Amino acid sequence: MTLITRRSVLIAGTATAGAVLVPAVSATAAPTDLKSAKAKGSSGTRISVAAGQTYTLSATTRVSELSIADGGRIVAPDGSALTLTVDGVETGQLLTATGGTDTLIQAGTYRGDVVLTVATANEVTYETLTFPFRQAVYVDADGVARDKSVLAAVLGGKLTDARARNVSITSTGECFDGVYVQDATYTLDRPVISLTGNGRCDFAGYGAAVVGDGAATTLVVDGARIDTRGVVRTAVISDDGANVIVKDSVVRTRNGVLPADYRATVETPYMESVPWMLGLDGNVRATNLIGKDSKATYLNSTVFSETWGALSVEGGSGLKLTAINSHFGNTGEYGYGTYAIGDATVRVLGSRLDVGSYATIIAGPAAVVHYGDSTRAAVSALNTELELGLSKAELAAVPVRNTVVDSGHFGYMFFGAGDLTLDGGTVINSERATFLNKGQQTTISVDGSQGARLNPRDGIILQLIELDDPGPVDVDGKMMNIGVYTEPTGDPVKDAGFDPTAVHATDGAATFSSIALKGDFYNGMRTGKNMVLTFEDASVEGVISATRAEHRVSSIDASTFYELGIVTNTARAAVNNGAIVRLDSGSTWTVTGTSYLTRLDLAADAAVRAPRGRKVTLTVDGTATALTRAGPTPARSPSPSREPGRRRGTQPRRASASFAIRSNCAPMAA
Description:
Elements: E1 11-12, E2 42-43, E3 46-49, E4 54-56, E5 61-68, E6 73-75, E7 80-86, E8 89-90, E9 93-95, E10 103-105, E11 108-120, E12 122-126, E13 129-133, E14 135-140, E15 143-144, E16 154-155, E17 158-159, E18 163-165, E19 168-171, E20 177-182, E21 185-189, E22 192-196, E23 210-213, E24 218-222, E25 225-229, E26 236-239, E27 243-247, E28 250-254, E29 287-289, E30 295-299, E31 302-305, E32 309-311, E33 320-324, E34 327-330, E35 336-342, E36 345-349, E37 352-355, E38 358-365, E39 367-372, H1 376-385, H2 392-397, E40 404-407, E41 412-414, E42 418-422, E43 427-430, E44 435-438, E45 442-447, E46 453-456, E47 460-465, E48 473-475, E49 478-480, E50 485-486, E51 508-513, E52 516-518, E53 520-523, E54 531-536, E55 539-542, E56 544-551, E57 555-556, E58 567-571, E59 579-583, E60 588-591, E61 597-603, E62 607-609, E63 616-620, E64 623-625, E65 658-669
Parallel strand pairs: 3-5, 4-6, 8-19, 14-20, 18-21, 19-22, 20-23, 21-24, 22-25, 23-26, 24-27, 25-28, 26-29, 27-30, 28-31, 30-33, 31-34, 32-35, 33-36, 34-37, 35-38, 36-39, 37-40, 38-41, 39-42, 40-43, 41-44, 42-45, 43-46, 44-47, 45-51, 47-53, 51-54, 52-55, 53-56, 54-59, 55-60, 59-61, 60-62
Antiparallel strand pairs: 1-17, 2-3, 5-11, 7-8, 7-11, 9-10, 12-13, 14-15, 16-19, 17-18, 48-49, 50-57, 56-58, 61-65, 63-64, 63-65
């Protein structure tokens, strides 16, 4: 037999059959001429496993038929993993138990080009569990590792130690990965990967189409077509410092069927469905970014999950998720575009989002999220920072686009602390509030100088409410998703130690500059947290107020997850939920209804107005008060337009006078 080195071309198959390269074996091992192999217990080119029999296959073997009776088992030796392919398709393998990690080829008769690949186990430990990975292609620093790869599952194209071009990988079994790259530089060029059947853990990548793992990994996925259907059958994962770059690709994931005895949990080694307390459902997300200092970039790509989420960041530190000129979101009614947790940096430039529930869930505690335009300067800077490897010609060919979000529910949901910036020509269209803040410290910045717009259909720009996540429940030492949210009754009790007129570092703060806004801002918190709004050279038309916020239903569990975050507001004086408004130079507030504030600061050339045909009155602690400024306003020299919404770069008129009110005050349009 002629040995083929790992540095040579490994696969040169056809559209219907893959060339099977067998690891070198000892002279006493089973034959490596797979077409004529006759393994112990087989008849001709058949293997039959009887009921109650455990058949151990020591080397990769090709037969025309494999028959396993009920109760029979065919396995590999310890330290190895066995994979069945029929006509180049991985099949037959199922998990042996819900929540387990081992798989077994199921009873039945398999006919055709049947290959049983015995490969060295790729054992990956995540927290308390070790997962015995099987994958079509395993790549390490030396190239494609044949001893860990199931090359019988790779059809067509060309596979080398540096690149796979036009290969096809198909799986109908469970927990089989397409390509696993460990601490290596590798390119997948126009692969087609189709996985049907459940995965097991998308925090480890067990059952994913593509995994890049390790700080020495740079994995480029170019022109891919990836389609999966199954529980946590994730498409793309970047882990443990890997840099995964997906270009000009189409990725789609669809839900599977959860095991009948699966019980929803937030314990990540066992989690197979999205925690419903996020207001979501589903059991597969398209991508995941995890570990320390991992990066994932999606350029000119389409990425959709049915529900749950499209581009996820889940745990770790120093993570960077970027989408440039891409189209992503959900095909179902619920789901998010991106998820940001920890100290992750999430950037969405020049992209289109069609999402069921949220553009981004910001879960803190130090997440930074930016939505903007794919300007040449921004893309060039990211090319350097993220080591994307784009040439000057490729950079010049990237179109400059704005970002547009279309959401079936909210724009952004703060489930934890974080910073959010919207600028450029970003447009956020949502059925409900643009910003849903569930009692979190926020820094929101919206710059409309280049045309950014906020379009909430329900007329609410910012809604601040108590966190309505009931949390998991400890059941026999495991955290299960069986909590129930119950609406609090009665009025909140005044916290004597909290000042609703002061600005605190932990408040929900937002700044809007050079933009015209039409919509309401509500603080429905019961405990101490202020809504702090700053308007710079901006106009706002709407109600800004402390409120009593109430859910439409008084009790919410997994069966009514979609009610989370949806409240009605009754404007009323603040208790522990101050509403602080700063109208800086050039800003105007048109008050459309009674608004209960705890502090109002006006620049000398700012204005509080009523809609046409109405007037504004002001009461402070129930006493009518004139809305006048303290001190004269000196004459000023001519300056550029003072119209709210002018672009940055023009200078507002300077004024020495300002106006401030503290305590409960109620501007009222009547």
